[in-house]
Amino acid sequence: MNMILKTARTTAIGAALGASLLATTVSAQELRGWNIHVEDYPVSIGMESFVAEVSEKTDGRVTGKVFHNGVLGDQPDAIEQARLGAIDFGVFSLGPMGQVVPETNVVSLPFIFKSTDQMYRLMDGDVGDEIGKGLEAKGLVALGWYDAGARSFYNSIKPINTPEDVVGMKVRVMNNDLFVGMVESMGGNATPMAFGEVYQSLRTGVVDGAENNPPSYESTNHYEVAKYYSLSEHLIIPECLCMSKATWDRFSPEDQEIVMAAGRASADLQRGLWQEREAASMAKVEAAGTIVNRVENKVPFQEAMAGVYASFLEDNPDLEGLVKMIRDAD
Ligand code: BDP
Which atom, in ligand 1's list, is nearest to the CA of 210? Predict the structure, then answer.
């Protein structure tokens, strides 16, 4: 075959292939999902089930891919990208979300929920609706509230039983001024830092400790480099399966209904998996030599952190009603 003919034929095949590929990309909407966690984490399984259900119920009109392990960027960046529509959906902690959506900060106040059961009830009711409105005003649609248990302190130096034990300790926190204030209220030094940098920072002593729920403490291997885990349970912060409003607005009302229902269903699944994973993570870290202590008296921590509420309400007087709604609930 002469060279010119061959090239012409290859180009023709290429063009035909290109056209058919283009046709698929235009008709099917491949959504990009951001996830910070490893693939077998409850959040990750919830997100995969969300994508599978959406694809099935829309007969493949809407498909999606979840990018696990934070490969699409760390959380504060991903929140911005989702607001702009560069990422279509993700499961975000309402902790770092507070820097963008003030309403979400109320669930980052220490000891605000009495239990995770109470958190579920309130997030599935009026409190969740109010927070959802705040998210929507900033370009995000909440499809479901995921569980992230309760966060507790861990470090490489000693067990924490009282706020005084934190004096002088370098503690990593999520990106939100509230958490800096929380650690400083006990006399610790707070360092906001991306989740992916914490292991190395603990290992090299850049920080002495951090705080998180059992599944995150375990799945990141932080327990290998910070063996004292003190169950203070000072923060119960839910997470949202959120979709970019830019993406959401492209769907027909029928597809929006499918997406919303799939989001809710995935949250139910995730909450069940969460309970199992918490128990499994605790068993794993204890077997590996983590020294766990339960903080028997939480009152001194609540007293030390009371100032966090006072300054928050001073800066956000309009959120007093929402704070009260949670505090007064059974
Ligand atoms: C985990 C949350 C994740 C946060 C992480 C952190 O699920 O969204 O990024 O904590 O501490 O529990 O940064």
Answer: 11
